[in-house]
Amino acid sequence: MRQVATFSGRESVHSAQPDVAESRQWEPAPAPVFVDQSGLRSRLLRRFGWPVSVVGAILAAAMGGSLIGMQSEAPAMEIPPKPAYLPARGPLTPS
Amino acid sequence: MSRHQRRRQSLLRPRRLAAPPLRFFMPLSLLACLLALLVLRGLATNEAFHDTRIATSVDKTTVPENLLKGGPVIDARGDKNERPVSYRIPDHTVVLSFDDGPSPEWTPKILDVLAAHDVRADFFVTGAMTTRHPELIRQIVAGGHEIGVHSFTHPDLVYQSEARISWELAQTQLALAGVAGVHSALFRPPYSSDASALDDWNYPVIKYVGSHGYLTAFIDRDTHDWKRPGVDAIVKAAMPRKPGAGELILLHDAGGDRTETLAALEQIIVKLKGEGYRFATVSEALGATDATVPVHGYQLWAGKCFIWASKAAVLTLPVLVALLAVVGFLNFGRFALMLVLAPLHARRSKRRNAWGPPVTEPVTVLVPAYNERECIANTLNSLIASDHPIEVIVIDDGSTDGTADIVEEMNLPFVRLIRQANGGKSTALNTGIAAASYDIVVMMDGDTVFEPSTVRELVQPFGDRRIGAVAGNAKVGNRDSLIGAWQHIEYVLGHNLDRRMYDMLNVIPTIPGAVGAFRKEALRRVGGMSDDTLAEDTDITMAVLCDGWRIVYAERARAWTEAPASLQQLWSQRYRWSYGSMQAMWKHRRAVTSRGPAGRFGRLGLPLVVMFGVVAPLLAPLVDMFLLYGVLFADAPITLASWGGFILLQAVLSWYAFRLDGEKPLHLISLPIQQLVYRQLMYIVLLQSTITALTGGRLRWQKLRRTGEVAAAPVEA
Questions:
Q1: pLDDT band, residue A3 (cuts 50/70/90)
Q2: B256 and B342 share one domain
């Protein structure tokens, strides 16, 4: 981040020639707080932000999708017709 | 805290919409993830969609006789859906079934007993428990036992819609696929007993479930072990009515202390084996194919992902709760600080001559004006009525709407007009400071109206030599619209009560640009106004504090300002404020490690402002996420009640703030809506300006720093 220089415009307050004072004080001043003239930070954050957002959106969609509950059918299970009404009599070889 | 200077361009230009809106997409996608995680966690802990209602049995007119008198297993699948059939457990065969599990404490012990006796049983598990304890399901399956579906959230399905029943089935199968790679064809409705308990309400549920291919397994013998009736009672209840008759026994492996169940299980097995019974699963007893069937492909992987996400959700929740606790702590801490310090401040301000001898010397009032055609006349007329001797300097900052001409035409004897080329508010103020004749400088905005006593009240604290600046009380004039009323509440509660608190701690971070006064000496020592930041008022206030001056709040020095009347104006004003305040905080960050008064501000005031002004609002969306989750998925009444309680607390505090400020509490009516619309707008603005700060982008109204060649010398009118 940029260097913070305390405002050096004391003269301007009392100066008889504010215009001269101003031009002297402004010229060496750095960019305003937070501003990144090169745009490097912005590019870095964008490069990092897009994948994060896309992955986040995909994850959110996947998690949301897993909550909808689409497949509610049971698997097939064959029951022989015989024991339906007439259960087998007698013990079936107790274990 | 009114800062003026309406800049040329509106914030919401089409260009912004054309650019890829990563700054909106990213927070939204992260919040969506958060909400999904909350719901997943809520499902795993059986908190979301929870329904504890239990139906009581009604008529049985629609239930076929053969089912009521038939066996415990009902087949309503496929072409049997119209005329379901039931199966009995064959004689000398017993099926043990355990409901509501798995439970990490009891299921392993039950599995041990079953394994010791080489017995295989049925476990009717809920999806929620499955999601939370995957390894137990794997142990059950590995032990050769059978898994049945017992719904996901364990509601009484009689009260649920078909869509919900279908969802309960699907979600449980998903969980089973995820943890053990199986689906189950067996189903047992929650709160069910034997087939004779079928009635007009639950019979349709059985048919519906059957139409999805499930075999419903009721029971023959209910041990009521969940009531803990004693080991003997459980064993007795498990014994067959007729010796040798086949039976399906209900036990529970979750839902409380299962010591009795465990002891009874051992005895049941020993006793029934002694009577020549064989132990089987439901499918074995019916001679059917396996009820638990392995799944592959998409179903398997969807299940695995569901379980992973649920696990992650359960793990992240403590983090989210901790962050929520931080928000709560900050909000309640702020309330508590206010409640302690504001009354002290109110008592102090009642004392007359609290600052020593009355200040009667004339002062300079600076009115920087940029395109204030509509307001400037009102502003100056309000100053005419001042009951304190004043000199007024209007600094026209290169207005293009004839503001300066209006001032000139008014031709007021105590007003001086300085025209300068457009250079920004701080430059205009510096010009004014340089031209001021007196030692005390009052600053106001060109769109602000003073009361006759405002200047007098504002400068009285300067009777104390240590006081370097005084903050006045900015009030919203146009408070009859909804948006005006919201800002009115915010000014009275958020700004004025806050300022009383900060005053008592001697760390007032902002003197509102609309009404404030400075000792010229203090301004000179810190180098005048700076245009390093967009919030020159916060910047200068912090600088004066760091220089060791005291700053106080004079709440009787009221200034009436016109608050933004449209959302767009409000947005751009707040964008500038939050961005500017953050700039000012960052600019003065070295104060944290400084010595003396700067260090005091850096270690007390700065953290407070950062916590209350940046951290709390940035974490605020989390509160809304929990609110949304609570209302939509968990317990809506409790969520709404606690939210209402918070609003009530805030209402009480606002009412107190209104009373301190002598305001009618009428406008507090819109407080609940303010919490639902305005609060969100404020944190979105803060988030957006934080993103702008991080990316280092230049705000549109933040002009390039002037190099001086365009700064014409001020012309005295």
A1: very low
A2: no
- Whether B644 contacts B713, CB under 8 Å: no
Q: Is A48 on the interface with B (CB under 8 A)?
A: no
Same domain, B361 and B438: yes
Question: Where is the domain boundary, B295, B315, B344?
Answer: B295
| Residue B470, φ and ψ in degrees, nearest 5 | -135, 135
- Say how many CB pairs under 8 Å bridge A and B: 251
Which CATH number is B231's domain given? 3.20.20.370
Residue B108 contacts residue B260 (beta carbons within 8 Å): no
- Tell me if B61 is assigned to some domain: no
Q: pLDDT per residue over A10-60, tens digit each?
A: 333 333 333 433 333 333 445 678 888 788 888 898 899 999 999 999 999
**Domain residue ranges in chain A:** 10-64
Residue-number span of the structural domain to which B391 is assigned: 325-716
Whose tokens are 């019979």? That residue is B203
Q: At CA A95, angle to CA B292 and CA B237, rounded to 5?
A: 80
**Look-up of token digits 């995820």:** B178
Q: Measured between CA atoms, how close is A47 to chain B, in angstroms?
A: 11
**B119 shares its domain with B251:** yes
For B124-176, write each residue's pLDDT tens digit. Answer: 999 999 999 999 999 999 999 999 999 999 999 999 999 999 999 999 999 99
- The residues in B 587-616 lying below 8 A from A, measured between CB atoms, are 587, 589-590
CATH classification of the domain holding B710: 3.90.550.10
Which of B22, B92, B293 is facing A46, going by the closest CB pair? Answer: B22
Residue B282 and residue B350 in one domain: no
Measured N-to-C along each axis, helices B536-546 and B567-587 cross at an angle, to the nearest 10 degrees, of: 30
**Shortest CB distance from A66 goes to which of B283, B289, B302?**
B302
A62 in B contact zone (CB under 8 Å)? yes
Smallest CA–CA distance from B32 into chain A, residue: A60
Closest CA to B591 of B548, B633, B561, B629: B548
Task: Pick the closest to residue B92 from A90, A83, A86 (CA basis).
Answer: A90
Interface of A with B in 6-35 (CB under 8 A): 6-10, 12-15, 17-19, 22-24, 26-27, 29, 31-35
Q: Which residues of B touch A23 (CB under 8 A)?
A: 707-709, 711
| Out of B93, B168, B696, closest to residue A35 by CB | B696
| pLDDT single digits (tens) B426-462 | 999 999 999 999 999 999 998 899 999 999 999 999 9
**How many domains does one find in chain B?**
2
ipTM of the prediction: 0.78
Residues of B annotated as catalytic are: 99, 252
Helix count and strand count (H, E) for chain A = 3, 0
pLDDT score recorded for residue B707: 32
Residues in B 424-453 with any Cβ partner in A closer than 8 A:
427, 430-431, 433-434
Contact B713/A39, CB-based, under 8 Å?
Answer: no
Output phi, psi for B11, to 5 deg. -70, -45
Q: Is the peptide bond before B21 cis (omega within 30 degrees of 0)?
A: no
Q: Does the residue B607 lie in any domain?
A: yes
Is B643 a domain residue? yes
Mutate to test the interface with B, among A54, A63, A86 (most CBs of B within 10 A): A63
What's the pLDDT tens digit per position in B602-656? 999 999 999 999 999 999 999 999 999 999 998 899 999 999 999 999 899 999 9
| Mean pLDDT calculated for residue range B212-222 | 94
